[in-house]
Amino acid sequence: MKIAVTHPDETARRHWVRALAARLPEARVADWPAPEAHGADFAVVWKPPAGFFAAHPALRAVFSAGAGVDHLLRHGDVPATLPVVRLEDAGMARQMIDYCLHAVLRIVLRADAYEAQQRDACWRELAPVARTDLTVGVLGIGALGGQVARALAAAGFRVLGHARSPHRIDGVECLHGDAQLPSFLARTHVLILMAPLTDDTRHLIDARRLALLPRPAWLVNVARGALVDAQALLAALDAGALEGATLDVFDTEPLPPEHPFWRHPRIRVTPHVAAATLVEPSADQVADKIRRLLRGEPITGAVGRDRGY
C-alpha cells in the first residue's frame, strides 16, 4: 500500500509523512512529488497542485488535510468517482470554541470601547452587557459548529443554530432550511459563520441578509471568507448597521496589505488561526479510516459531492 502526501507547507507535509508512517508501518508513505510517491493507493492533500491526480490513477480515496474540502471540490482534476474524505474535529473543536467564545466575550465586556477609551486616556464606566441580552446565532451546526453552539449555550448565552437539514442540540434552538434563515438572522445579535463553502453558500451573507440582523449586531467569520460579500460588509459597518466584525478567513489569503479590512476601525483581523489542523490526532483519524476502507468497512466523513461537504 502506498500513501502520497502533498501540502504547500513543507513542515506540515513532512509532519504528515512521519505521523502516517508511524501509524501505518505496513504502508509506504511518500512526500509528493518524490518519485516513490507516484501511483499511490491513498492520498492526504491540502491544495494539491495541477497534475497531482493524473499521477495517481488508482487512488481509492483522498483525504483533506484540513477541515475544509472546497479546495478539492473546486479542483478540476479530481475524478468524479473518487471518494473525498474530510477531517472530523481532530482537535479543532476546542480551538474553535475558544476563539468564538473570546470574540463573544469581548462584546459582553465592551472590550473595543474600553480599548478606544484607553487610547484617549478616557476614564468612563460603560453600562455592562448581560449574556442574556444577546442571542448568538451559529450558521452551520455540523461537526465543529454544533460543538461551538453547545459550548456557548453552556456559557450562558441564548443560542440559535441554523443548518441545511434538521439538527438537535441540547440548549440550542435549531432552525433549518432556506425558509427559516430570515427568522434566524432577524433574531441573531452575534452571527457566527461556520457553514461550508459551496455554490449555494458563496456570498450567502450579502447586503440583503445583513439588513435582516437586529441592532446591535456583530459578525464573526471562522469558516470561509467567500461566505460574506466583502463590499456589503464594509457598507453595513460604515452605515452603523453592524457594530463590528471579527474575521479569521478571507477570499484571498494572505489578506493583501492594501485591503480595507486591515485598517477598518470596526474590524478585527486574525490570520486564519481560529482552528489549526493538529497533525497527530488528524493522522490517527486518517489511519483508522484507511484501515477500515481496506477491510471493506464504512467510514464517516465521506463528502457528498451533491451538497459540497
**Share in helix:** 25-40%
> Mind describing the biggest β-sheet?
7 strands, parallel
Encode the helix/strand succession as letters: EHEEEHEHHEHEEHEHEHEEH
* Integer count of domains: 2
β-strand number: 12
CATH superfamily of the largest domain: NAD(P)-binding Rossmann-like Domain
Oligomerization status of the protein chains: single chain
Just give the CATH class of the largest domain: Alpha Beta
The number of helical segments is 9
pLDDT < 50 runs, ≥5 residues: none
Quick check: average pLDDT?
96
Largest beta sheet: strand ordering: 8-7-6-9-10-11-12
* Ends distance: 27 Å
CATH topology of the largest domain: Rossmann fold
Shape: elongated
Residues in β-strands, percent: 15-25%
Give me the secondary-structure category.
alpha/beta
What Rg, in angstroms, do the CA atoms define? 21 Å
Known CATH architecture of the largest domain: 3-Layer(aba) Sandwich
